[in-house]
Backbone:
């Protein structure tokens, strides 16, 4: 059978299997096995091909960064540093109209600098920020929307698990991708703050009274508790950018520091340490399984010649780098309505990356466009993973999915605007990288 034809059929097969409920990694690996078998006509060779790809995919030293940053993020969440950050920031912004929403955004941005997982941010701040905003008179839909919207900063501001995944899929520099994420992350944070501040002045009825007494937790939380968060973020990120250690070593240093901080504050003990270890193992195993499937799939596509054929076709159509990025962003955003972020990247990046190289698109720029595009899907129906996390966390309070989706809609629109700016002005990403 013609290899390119097999490659095209594999795309259809993967779409059908995933939408029918098959796990993404199983779909990628299974269809790839059948594809190699169809191309070579030898089942034994296909099994050997899959086995070799699976082994090579996680044997790289770079892959060690995944469990280490996951461990650091879970330790930070268990130590309650996200709660401390919000409490301290909220205390300073309580008299600002919409200030608690702004405090949630700022706290999420700081929390993102030491976690890199959007879902963790959504879960933490649903419990911490929403009750305080509602108590202060903030409209409940606005409150849950702020948490869902700002949680996406966890996958954009470095360290980011999605940026690490992109680096593994494309053999790019994790450090450069982390640097590239700073500009878009700060821009999105600023855009959220401006939106909430303007909304606070135009629609003060949505935010209740400015004269709200501090909660007992705010009264008894010392300001110095924000120092561990700042110190941890500084050590990890500055260590990477100054060349003191590699991203993998930074993950190890950050994880160790987070555990020491949590134990020193007596918030992490033996029981919670075992819980963190278990959760780290679960997340790492899931990510590992996905990376193995994606590696097998990518090699099968390369073997079929489909990426090269699509690259030649895309170049021959005359579409420029900007046009391609806009089309790719629209595709990813549409896929985000039904698939999670990791699955979208695993399916699309192996096909699209060769095209971007032929068009002269910088890998770091392409990586950030990809991450922002798939992150919009965390806020859009029907999947909206961050929305589901917020709603499930607050289910006991009567919060509905419709409320969260309504509140998150403006933040998805702001993300789309920032994505447009990032595509049109690559300097937002590349200025700090030095390209």
Residues:
């Amino acid at each position: 059978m013609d290899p390119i034809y097999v490659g095209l059929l594999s795309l259809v097969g993967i779409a059908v299997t995933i939408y029918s409920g098959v796990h993404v990694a199983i779909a990628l690996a299974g269809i790839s096995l059948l594809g190699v078998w169809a191309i070579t006509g030898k089942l034994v060779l296909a099994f050997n091909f899959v086995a070799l790809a699976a082994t090579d995919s996680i044997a790289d030293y770079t892959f060690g960064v995944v469990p280490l940053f996951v461990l650091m993020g879970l330790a930070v969440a268990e130590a309650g540093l996200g709660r401390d950050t919000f409490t301290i920031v909220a205390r300073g912004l309580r008299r600002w109209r919409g200030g608690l929403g702004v405090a949630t955004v700022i706290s999420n941005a700081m929390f993102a600098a030491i976690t890199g997982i959007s879902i963790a941010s959504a879960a933490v701040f649903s419990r911490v920020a929403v009750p305080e905003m509602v108590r202060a008179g903030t409209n409940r839909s606005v409150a849950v929307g702020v948490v869902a919207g700002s949680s996406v900063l966890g996958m954009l501001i470095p360290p980011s698990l999605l940026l690490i995944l992109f680096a593994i899929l494309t053999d790019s520099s994790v450090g450069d991708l982390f640097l590239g994420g700073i500009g878009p992350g700060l821009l999105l944070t600023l855009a959220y703050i401006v939106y909430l501040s303007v909304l606070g002045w135009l629609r003060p009825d949505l935010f209740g009274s400015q004269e709200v007494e501090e909660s007992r937790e705010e009264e008894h939380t010392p300001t110095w508790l924000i120092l561990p968060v700042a110190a941890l973020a500084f050590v990890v990120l500055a260590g990477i950018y100054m060349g003191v250690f590699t991203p993998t070593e930074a993950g190890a240093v950050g994880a160790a520091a987070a555990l020491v901080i949590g134990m020193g504050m007596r918030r992490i003990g033996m029981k919670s340490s075992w819980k963190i270890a278990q959760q780290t193992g679960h997340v790492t195993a899931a990510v590992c399984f996905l990376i193995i499937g994606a590696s097998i799939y990518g090699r099968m596509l390369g073997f079929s010649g489909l990426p090269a054929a699509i690259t030649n076709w895309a170049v021959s159509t005359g579409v420029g780098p900007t046009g391609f990025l806009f089309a790719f962003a629209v595709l990813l955003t549409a896929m985000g309505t039904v698939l999670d972020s990791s699955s979208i990247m695993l399916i699309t990046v192996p096909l699209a990356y060769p095209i971007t190289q032929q068009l002269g698109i910088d890998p770091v720029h392409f990586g950030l466009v990809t991450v922002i595009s798939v992150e919009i899907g965390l806020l859009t129906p029907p999947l909206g993973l961050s929305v589901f996390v917020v709603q499930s966390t607050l289910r006991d309070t009567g919060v509905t999915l419709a409320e969260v989706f309504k509140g998150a809609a403006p933040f998805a629109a702001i993300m789309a605007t920032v994505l447009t700016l990032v595509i049109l002005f690559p300097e937002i990403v590349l200025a700090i990288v030095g390209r």
